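Bumping my old thread because nobody answered last time. Still need a sequence for this structure:
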């Protein structure tokens, strides 16, 4: 199985494990840092931060692929009272551009609250040739009434993305 992991959240790192099935040429999650400002819950909700995940995959036609995410800690660093589950990750769109031959596909799965377990954000079918996949995500801080960060606190977590392409 071919796998790529990247940590975002505030750091990006990528590694690929190549096997004879599918070939992953690149993997990127950007931006490398996502910030949330403590908002007055009476005034407005915190705006989601967009994240773009892109990868190039020379796959095996009609085999599946999955993009998963997890937090590397139960609570946010710098704000131990805030659980990672206070962050909600939603897939907004998946687009696939194939160099030639039958195309790959992609679709979003329902939004998730972060946890330390891998959860699927997007999935699809591999193309026969090089496919260029772009996934738009939105990460939002949930429940500002329940979890209000003190002014001046910097809270973060590392998000670990896993691309499975057997």
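Sorry it took so long. Here it is:
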């Amino acid at each position: 199985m071919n796998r790529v992991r990247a940590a975002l959240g505030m750091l990006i790192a990528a590694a690929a494990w190549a096997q004879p099935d599918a070939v992953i040429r690149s993997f990127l999650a950007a931006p490398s840092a996502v910030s949330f400002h403590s908002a007055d819950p009476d005034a407005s909700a915190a705006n989601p931060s967009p994240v773009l995940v892109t990868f190039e995959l020379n796959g095996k036609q009609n085999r599946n692929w999955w993009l998963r995410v997890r937090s590397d800690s139960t609570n946010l660093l710098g704000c131990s009272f805030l659980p990672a589950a206070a962050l909600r990750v939603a897939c907004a769109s998946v687009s696939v551009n194939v160099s030639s031959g039958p195309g790959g596909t992609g679709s979003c799965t329902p939004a998730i609250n972060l946890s330390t377990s891998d959860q699927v954000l997007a999935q699809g079918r591999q193309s026969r040739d090089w496919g260029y996949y772009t996934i738009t995500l939105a990460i939002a801080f949930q429940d500002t009434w329940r979890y209000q960060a003190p002014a001046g606190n910097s809270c973060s977590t590392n998000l670990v993305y896993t691309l499975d392409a057997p």
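Residues 21 and 62 are 12 Å apart (CA to CA). Let me know if any region looks off to you.
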